[in-house]
């Protein structure tokens, strides 16, 4: 396979999704499994959602079943040993998925601080981001997150266990994604399109997209640029850890979100019944009073004018009053100085790296083969594992004896060379480091993550204590950085043409278009409708409605008044035999359209600046 190579600093300016391989190889969390987390969390209750495994349709979060379970319930269900006390016993794992999603690690592991300390995003230049600033996602095969756009910051996602597939779309193609604010969720804009099984008659403009499909394996870190649309699915039982990184541009997004929240609250309380409000609101969201929302809008305007901002999750925190929100804003203003340079820190860290530009979808759409050798780590099935288990134990014992002998020899060498030159000392230490690393790799399979953390700290202290000279210590530290830099590989995802994307869907999901010619006509017609004032609006969900909107201006008898001197009368012409069906959801979605909200924010700021 021919790889296109570019410099990182060139690729990052184009805001292309990228995968960093081996960047978190030193994370002890790469050894986490559901069984290990079960032992750590004990009887802690966790919220999960149950959804149907299917690709022809997808379920919005309010349509899923939400349960409270313990981690052991999830593990027992995965291995098929759910008993009568298990809430998941009624769900066949081949037909239903279980997702313990979007859990803040600082809350989930509040009693296990060592687990939080094992997460560090230092290798990306984000020294202030660790476990407390990260979230964890645990899901069975078939779980997914509907296609949406995060309004704040950029995203780094580390794959810990299992495989995940990401479908990404540029924010420049937002109009083609058919954005919707129903179900309403602060900081997220959803897409109406089912990206795995698109209905091109209902969403013809989706054909104009150039999708990016990326398959992640354990040890990969995905960089999701700011405002990129994404749909995520688990191909295997999976664990992922991510962090959202705020940037200075988020001040504008906070302003738009505060406008959206105020408008949605006003519209929902006026147009919707109590039942509809719960249906249109995403799970976990709560609306504040209009008074609180208005004061919050005032605060975000002040923040925007000062080019300051606060953390991403501030909007979702339950606050009882506008004064409380104001206090929270004031407390977080200091973050602007620290986080405004996050983007630069991230870019500077890898500016001299070379990036391989390649298709990362995991499927050769031309040969219909998976790139198992290139992008997948080789996996053993259960029978292979059982057959090789005894052989591996014998090999391990032999290696352990050989390593002990080598360590003994190294120990004698270190003692005998204490009087020699510093260069020889350094050479011996590096030999010991190398041998110790080999031992660690062999031993890691028999130690738990908790033991590994302690072992790593003790080993580091032992090695540094032998480097009595400061120059030798700095040389050792530099060698570690150099080694890490040579290991990390960066891959930039190559976009697919829509025809290639259709072929990908055909291979993976047996997706077939009814008529490609009709779809091409649909996208041409929809493009024409977007620029033509004389349009016919057909409700795709309610085909009985047929509304035709045309300007009827009589040029001979044209008149105007003081209220409007630039436009004529516009009449609606429609078939009287047909019913007009305009839903409240259509009205709310139209008013909360991202383009409309952005314009409102711009007008608001222009008036304030006057």
Detailed description of the structure:
The chain is an alpha+beta fold. Among the domains are: 4-245 and 360-372, Jelly Rolls; 382-486. Helix content is 41%, strand content 20%. The chain has an 11-stranded mixed beta sheet. A hairpin with a 2-residue loop joins β10 and β11. α2 (34-41) packs antiparallel against α3, α6 (250-271) runs antiparallel to α8 and α6 (250-271) packs across α20 (594-609). The longest helix is centred in the middle third of the chain and has 35 residues, at 382-416. The radius of gyration is 28 Å and the shape is globular.
CATH H-level name of the domain at 4-245 and 360-372... which superfamily? Cupin
| CATH class division of the domain at 4-245 and 360-372 | Mainly Beta
Q: Major sheet: order of its strands?
A: 1-16-19-2-13-8-15-6-5-3-4
**SSE-based structural type:** alpha+beta
* Average pLDDT over all residues: 75
Largest sheet: 11 strands, mixed
Helix content: 40-55%
How many beta-strand runs? 22
Overall, the morphology is globular
Strand content is 15-25%
Poorly predicted ranges: 308-322, 331-336, 371-397, 412-457, 466-486, 526-568
Radius of gyration: 28 Å
Question: What distance separates the N and C termini?
Answer: 58 Å
Count of helix runs: 20
| CATH architecture descriptor text of the domain at 4-245 and 360-372 | Sandwich
Give me the CATH fold name of the domain at 4-245 and 360-372: Jelly Rolls
């Amino acid at each position: 396979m021919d790889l296109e190579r570019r410099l990182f600093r060139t690729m990052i300016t184009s805001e292309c999704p990228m995968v960093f391989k081996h960047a978190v190889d030193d994370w002890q969390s790469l050894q986490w499994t559901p069984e290990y987390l079960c032992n750590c969390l004990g009887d802690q209750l966790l919220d999960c959602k149950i959804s149907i495994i299917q690709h022809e349709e997808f379920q919005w979060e309010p349509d899923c079943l939400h349960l409270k379970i313990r981690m052991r319930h999830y593990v027992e269900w995965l291995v098929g040993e759910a008993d009568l006390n298990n809430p998941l016993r009624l769900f066949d794992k081949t037909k239903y998925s279980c997702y313990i999603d979007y859990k803040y690690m600082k809350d989930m592991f509040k009693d296990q601080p060592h687990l939080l300390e094992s997460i560090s995003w230092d290798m990306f230049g984000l020294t202030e981001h660790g476990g407390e600033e990260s979230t964890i996602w645990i899901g069975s095969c078939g779980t997914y997150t509907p296609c949406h756009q995060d309004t704040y910051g950029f995203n780094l996602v580390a794959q810990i266990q299992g495989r995940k597939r990401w479908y990404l779309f540029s924010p420049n193609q937002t109009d083609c994604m058919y954005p919707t604010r129903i179900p309403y969720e602060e900081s997220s804009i959803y897409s109406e399109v089912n990206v795995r099984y698109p209905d091109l008659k209902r969403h013809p403009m989706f054909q104009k997209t150039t999708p990016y499909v990326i398959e992640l394996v354990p040890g990969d870190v995905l960089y999701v640029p700011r405002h990129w649309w994404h749909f995520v699915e688990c191909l295997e039982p999976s664990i992922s850890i991510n962090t959202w990184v705020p940037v200075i541009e988020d001040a504008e997004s906070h302003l738009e979100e505060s406008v959206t929240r105020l408008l949605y609250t006003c519209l929902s309380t006026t147009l919707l019944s109590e039942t509809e409000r719960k249906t249109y609101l995403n799970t976990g969201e709560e609306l504040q009073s209009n008074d609180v929302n208005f004061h919050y809008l005032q605060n975000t305007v002040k923040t925007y004018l000062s080019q300051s901002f606060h953390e991403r999750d501030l909007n979702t925190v339950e606050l009882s009053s506008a004064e409380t929100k104001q206090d929270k804003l004031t407390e977080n203003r200091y973050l602007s100085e620290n986080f405004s340079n996050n983007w630069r820190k991230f870019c500077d860290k890898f500016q001299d790296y070379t990036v391989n530009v390649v298709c990362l979808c995991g499927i050769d759409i031309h040969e219909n083969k998976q790139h198992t050798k290139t992008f997948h780590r080789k996996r053993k099935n259960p029978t292979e594992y059982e057959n090789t288990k005894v052989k591996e134990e014998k090999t391990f014992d032999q290696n352990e004896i050989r390593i002990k002998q080598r360590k003994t020899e190294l120990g004698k060498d270190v003692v005998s060379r204490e009087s020699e030159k510093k260069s020889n000392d350094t050479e011996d230490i590096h030999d010991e480091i190398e041998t110790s690393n080999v031992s660690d790799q062999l031993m890691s399979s028999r130690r738990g993550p908790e033991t590994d953390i302690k072992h790593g700290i003790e080993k580091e202290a032992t090695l540094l204590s032998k480097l009595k000279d400061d120059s030798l210590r700095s040389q050792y530290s530099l060698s570690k950085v150099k080694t890490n830099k040579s290991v990390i590989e960066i891959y930039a995802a190559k976009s697919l043409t829509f025809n290639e994307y259709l072929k990908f869907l055909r291979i993976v999901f047996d997706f077939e278009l009814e008529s490609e010619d009709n779809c091409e006509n649909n996208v041409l017609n929809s493009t024409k409708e977007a620029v033509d004032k004389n349009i016919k609006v057909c409700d795709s969900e309610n085909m009985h409605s047929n509304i035709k909107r045309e300007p009827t201006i009589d040029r001979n008898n044209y008149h105007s008044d003081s209220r409007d001197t630039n436009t004529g009368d516009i009449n609606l012409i429609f078939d009287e035999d047909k019913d007009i069906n305009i839903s409240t959801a259509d009205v709310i979605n139209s008013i909360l359209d991202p383009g409309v909200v952005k314009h409102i924010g711009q007008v608001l700021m222009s008036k304030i600046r006057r």
